[in-house]
Amino acid sequence: MFAYVVRRIFVGVIMLFVMSLVTYLLFFAAPSDPARYTCGKNCSPELIEQNRKALGYDKPVLVQYGEFVKGVFVGREFPDDPELKKSAPETIASCPAPCLGYSPLQSATVTSLIAEAAPISISLAFMAFLMWMVFGISGGIIAALYKGRFADRALVGSALVVYSFPTFFIGLSLYIFVAIKWQLTPIPVYTPISEGGVGAWLSGLFLPSLTLALIYIAGYIRLTRAFVLESMGEDYIRTARAKGLPQRQIMGKHTMRAALTPIATVAGLDLGALLAGAIITETVFNYNGLGKLAVQAATTYDLPTTVGIVLVAAAFIITANIIVDVLYAVIDPRVKYS
Amino acid sequence: MTISRRTTALAVLAVTSVLSVAACGGGGTTTGSGNGSATGSAAAGQKGGTVYWLTKRPAEHLDPQRTYIGRDLANENRLFYRDLVSFPVGKTGEEATKPVADLATDTGTSSEGGKVWKFTLKDGVKWQDGKDITCEDLKYGLSRGFATDVITGGPNYQLGYLDVPQKDGLPVYNGPYKKTGQADFDKAVACEGKTITYHFNKPWADFPLAIASLRSFAPYRADQDKGDQSNYAIFSSGPYQLQGTWQKGKGGTFVRNPNYDPKTDQTGRMALPDKIVITEGLTNEIINQRLIADSGDDKYAVTDRKIPGSMYSQIDSNPTVKSRSTLVNAPFVDYLLPNFNSDVMKNPKVRDALKLATDKTAYITASGGDKYGVPAKSIVNPDIVGYKDNAAFTGPDAGDTAAAKAMLQSAGVTLPVKIKYTYSGGTPESDNAAAALKQGWDKAGFSTTLDPLTDTYYDVIQNPNTKSDVYWGGWGADWPSAATVTAPLFDSRVNGVGTNPKSNGQDYGNYKSDAVNSLFDQAAKAADVQSAATVYAQADDQLGKDVAYIPLTVEKFYFLHGSGITGYAQSAATSGYPDLGSIGVKK
Amino acid sequence: MSETQRDMEFGSGVAVETLGSTDEKAIAGRTPWQLARARLRRDKITMVVTGIVIASIVIAILAPVLTALGVLDPETFHPELIDPNTGGLPIDGGGGISWQHPLGVEPGTGRDVLSRIVLGVTFSMTVALSATIITVVLGTVAGLVAGFLGGRTDFAISRVIDMVLSFPQTLMLLALSGMFIDIITNAGVPAGNPSNGVYIVLVLGLFGWPTIARIIRGQVLSLREREFVEAAKSLGASNGRIFFKELLPNLWAPLLVYGTLLMPAYISAEAALSYLGVGIKPPTPTLGNLLTYSVNYAASDVTFFLFPAITIATLVLCFNLMGDGLRDALDPKADR
Question: Transmembrane residues, as ranges (chain A) (predicted)?
Fold first, then answer.
């Protein structure tokens, strides 16, 4: 088991390393000129050349990648200009490890931008996770218990219908009608716990996480329903029923345990992917999490920030995979890893 | 201030030879503060409360020397960057854009025909940490603009005007970080106690207008300067200071600056609210839906985002909401530019046909109707001194399809004439507006391909080799004088048309006319506003005859504000945006 | 099932979920078509949604013809039908619905909503179908090769799959658009919407294939051990022959199911990307463009607000239900 975990982590790190190289090459070795995008729309050719030097884009791309990797482990300084360092050291931005680069468009290090945005995305992801797990699983159990009857069809059907609408349509509709026109909830604004307490944090999170959760609920209702039905058909459940155990105990003790294991796996992976930012939901609700930062970076050709977020997101996904696989081995004794 | 709509501010205003208009310079003390407002509710304000400013587009820079967007220039001046002179709060009409003394004791004195300017700082003007604002701070601020490798994005008139020797088209001085050529800069800008003297290499008659409009000349404290990292660091000299940090895409909160002394301020800044919260990143739809709903904190909100056409009916059908809406002139004019490098557009009859086929009414309807703007008869905004309709553009607003078709048939080209129209797209309104233009043109015998650019616009059309036949443009004057409209847009020498293979500056249509250039020279030498304006009008006539441009619309700002707002004003002093100098909240 | 990265926010969740859960189930080796058809006929919901899907495909194919004939007119502005003083709302109440314009006219332009939606279905389905084909072809080839050759090839392909699945898809779609569209244009595709369209098709396909590949690989791994493949091998059949004659015919059923389930995912993806400003741009009427515009009218023109959304939702729902139904019919073990 221990050897398995170590091996998974090792493979994960290698994968992240390869992905960082691929990402870096994709963005910085493409025929388009990264320096062209360093000073927004107000750029003169001279300025582009200056920025190219200041950011090291004049060097071969593999050298740049080497500097990037070095920055992750030991930090870097921007611009790397000895002359400027002598005459005006205060203008040089230091970027301590783990340094993911410096964004000249945001005048900040990528690490600090991500550190500012991450708590918002994480709050949103966990809140949505909580909602869809509670509603999805309970909905799925009800649907399974009343299989083929009205409750089953209504639940599965309505979840599917909601799921069929694009996320931004649901989000904007909720925002415009629920929050603004009917004023049933406050205007969703993210307030950190440190500023407004838990209450403000929660109320700000409600609509965006509901939007996200609504997308996932359909999947989880169907998933739960399927797994519960499957395990209800298993021999040991039939045995338990034949023994005369009460339905409640059968459901709680035997069926659910078997059904929840695979659901936990899927849920872990979903959460991992979501931690790196819900792009559309954050855009709709103007939540300045990783998703919105990513949109902002992508649409302004802020390459250092884009690369940074891609790698952080990949790290979340890979980590979630490892955790889920290991947990799976722990929860389910039938799984054996050599 | 230059173009701030849809896409952006402009490429660096290359060293312009724009000279103008003496009227607004000169000494003289100023009127005191006023309570009037250009438009909207003008109840006497009380101190206290929080004003919310809701907006979409993130500020790209809040560094005074790097700011070039009208909204940000105005807010910086009202809240935290005082300048030697500023536009007064609470004035209307021409008074609104007549600079008054702010940090300086007066509006400056000039000598040597406008080549030397002197200002003296008031006593008791302080930074947010209580230290005096000094002449060295003013000089340091100006010097930053010379570090073109670090201080990017802002206007750079100072590079062309200040009497610093040049090499290869750039000043030998390269800013306070590397300090090459510091001695030359010290000669051009001299401090003597509290008096600063600027030496220019050519007359700059309306220098005070430039100070009041831009933030290039604002003081900056050397010990607060961290180069690019200071882009969003605000060290205040005005009534408010930043609380915590500014977060791009999110915004920031401003609270009172304890070291601001209102007794030193005669511009009329009322500084009513205790707090001002600026929120970025919201869409126009969300902002205005919230302002219509007017609940909670949104009662105390203002915005610089226009009401989208989709919401007009919600406002018209509700008198209380309508009473909170304002419709004022924006400083922007939308126009089209035929590309003089394109083969078809070289033919004057094709340009004429294009002009005749252009349906301004459909363009305006698709952009948002009469609240979006009114048909323009010239590229010059009617609010600018000496404005005259351009006779070339007074035909029917909806265009004249028959005449256009006849003109095109007589042009010696095979119909349909294939043209490509490049515009700054990506919003439903801009795309619909382009489709509306296409329809008018196609009826007259053109066959139009639409080419919307969403991310970089001016970058692309500045390239003289871009293969398109017609471009969209939007322009607002850098300061309220015709000198900052037609000359920077059509003077082929300034823009390097035909000489610079990489860029046409702001003459996106690659227009080149010696006759027009010499009229610009003549206007620059004129003694006063009126006679300069007459010459600029002649230049405009020639541009019209050549169809160097086709004006589309003079834009309007149709804004909403919350019911709890007092002293709401929009005037030319703040480029038509809400004036935080007078806005407060009801208790 | 593990390591399936799913980008639910994007709208592909249900599809991938069903992909995952059928993963380990072996499809019966005998031709299941008659059985399946019989089972399908009994499934009323599937029959109805399949009808709707077929009808939309027919409409999508006919739309350009009808436009050429002048029956549909998605481009003409009707300034006389909208009121500039209300920001261009239709003059007639109810969104300007009339005999000429059964779904009303578009605010701001007066264009016919029905024509635009019908053409929107054409454009969106073309994008979704092209992306689906690329996804399925790439995924099948990769899965076949990995599963059949095994060993190092399998290892390499599996690691590439892991890696592609670990990229945040939506972000990559967004971030790569600028430079990749330039590349596509330079490769000779006309600039503007043709390039934009090719871009989203390619990129959806490039990020979509690993899921299919993983499933196909699993199928091949189990088929490889089956008698008829062993028999072919021992008879000395070439790899190519085994690929095409023995393996591929047994993969049609799952491919049909997954292909059907990819369509709604890609229709949703096109809409989401339009909202984010990537993909085919207006005035070309894709469903995403129409919806991005129509959500602005939530409070002022209810019919216009609803029609594009309902169209997308109907298509997505019907394709999803049809995929489910097909899977149930083709996979006798599924008991749901």
Answer: 9-30, 120-146, 158-180, 200-221, 258-280, 309-331
